[in-house]
Amino acid sequence: MTKVLLISANTLRMPYPVYPLGLDYVVGSLDSRYQTRIVDLNTVADLDDLGAIIREFSPDFVGVSIRNVDNSDTINSRAFLSDYQNLVRQIRKNSPARLILGGSGYTVFPVEFLQALDADYGIAGEGERLSLLLEALEKNESVQSIPGIVTKDTVTVTYEPWDSAIQRRFDSASSHTGFYLSYGGMLNLQTKRGCPFRCSYCTYPHIEGSRMRFFPAREVALKARELQDAGAKYIFITDSAFNASYDHSRQVAEAFIEAHVSIPWGGFFAPTIPPADYYKLLADAGLSHVEFGTESLSDTMLANLQKPFAARDVFAAHKQALKADLYIAHYFLLGGPGENDQTLQDTLNGVDTLEKSVFVFFCGIRIYPHTALYEVALKEGQISPSQSLLQPVFYRSPHISGKEIMQAVENHANGRFNWIIGSGENKATRALPKLYDRGFTGPLWEHLIQ
Ligand code: B12
Ligand code: SF4
């Protein structure tokens, strides 16, 4: 039997450790000819420990899931390439297996990562294609024609959504499931893939595709029940924007009610104008936390960022979510093309009118390939065509500096606890690990709402 070891390389614990959902799908795509094992680095003491696991399992193939490239935060930027290099060194030292990379972070920089980690293969996009890659390798066939496959000779990568079967294999008895259940109790769930919007800085349509592919609502609800029955205390829906289809998200909520899903859940939402009573129905189905990707409250900036809504829509969505008694967070991305004193002021003044919410501000926007922002940055000479963006590079508005933006936000926040600046090294989020240790569950930002 061919043995496949899959390693989740993500050990970031801010804002909290994230269950390696992608690997459930990768394992689910491999049939019984393969003996698979998932190792989550969050559950391994150190790299020596990992070395022992690798030697004992003796895999034919090792897959490494690369989720985070960096923490996308200008204020306290952290990149993870050197950690991945150490990991790969340890794998190579303990196994002659062929090394295959994949994951959402990997998909943004497939050729760069393959080279930097000297891996044998990579799969950009959906990992369900691992089955095709392994089959071709075992039969000594060429792998070049499989979409998304990266080899040492690849210069450009083809991206194609996976339209065949998608199956998640969730193992409630695995040690990593136990880890997430005991640390915050949060597991995660996907209801569809793809985002139809085209926000200028965003990688999601590139990672998942821009065509939405829906999972049947009943199947999603049964999976939610499986997570709940395994002991989950909270479910995060990982869709790029859960409400990108109001119809499908409503069907999922109705299916949750039918399947008696009783634990709270949350996810990312676009603050577009919802149909009447949309948030009420979702709240009745257990939705407790809404995370709006608002980004700005200046209509000029919303247009520049190609957001699919205007400031007035944000206020309407907020009002309806508030009426449904939901916990609300708004995320802001400041410093994009055209940001200036006035647009910033419009945003900060607008934020003051949003009641009972948490506001998270990122001051500076990470530039990723395959985005409209990349083209703007190139045109403005902020980056060059040959420049690698694997180490974080942030867009700088010509009209206002990152420092000035941060200062203005800090001044305006005036110490309010529900105004969080940056990704998680501030006072409020430093307290999170202690709360999880004490048995608190879910994302916990609701405790900051004033
Ligand atoms: C949901 C989400 C979150 C949620 C997660 C909640 C939860 N409990 O699950 C929250 C809000 C907490 C979050 C936080 C962060 N996130 Co986030 N998040 C996402 C999002 C939208 C979806 C991830 C997901 O679960 N997808 C669903 C699963 C099924 O897909 P997948 O993991 O990609 O797996 C598929 C493929 O990648 C592949 N695959 C995966 N592994 C492997 C392995 C092999 C060997 C192979 C072959 C294939 C393969 O196959 C899978 C099935 O097709 C992505 C963007 C996106 N659309 O992908 C960003 C994303 C992963 N996040 C990102 C970042 C940066 C962060 C933060 C660092 C942000 C911050 N500063 O706080 C933190 C880090 C948190 C942590 N502890 O790691 C980046 C990572 C890339 C980068 N720039 O570094 C992404 C890609 C968004 C972006 N900006 O581009 N995030
Ligand atoms: S920011 Fe959100 S809505 Fe916009 S393209 Fe990305 S995932 Fe879609």
What would you give as the CATH superfamily of the largest domain?
tm_1862 like domain
Number of domains: 2
Percent range of helical residues: 25-40%
Give the termini separation: 57 Å
Number of helices: 18
Largest sheet entry: 7 strands, parallel
Strand arrangement within the widest β-sheet reads 7-10-11-12-13-14-17
Could you report the average pLDDT, rounded to the nearest whole number? Answer: 95
- Please report which band the strand proportion falls in: under 5%, 5-15%, 15-25%, 25-35%, 35-45% or over 45%: 15-25%
Task: Please identify the structural class as seen in this structure.
Answer: alpha/beta
Q: Ligands bound here? A: cobalamin, iron/sulfur cluster
CATH-assigned fold name of the largest domain: pyruvate-formate lyase- activating enzyme
- Rg result: 22 Å
Instruction: Tell me what the CATH architecture of the largest domain is.
Output: Alpha-Beta Horseshoe
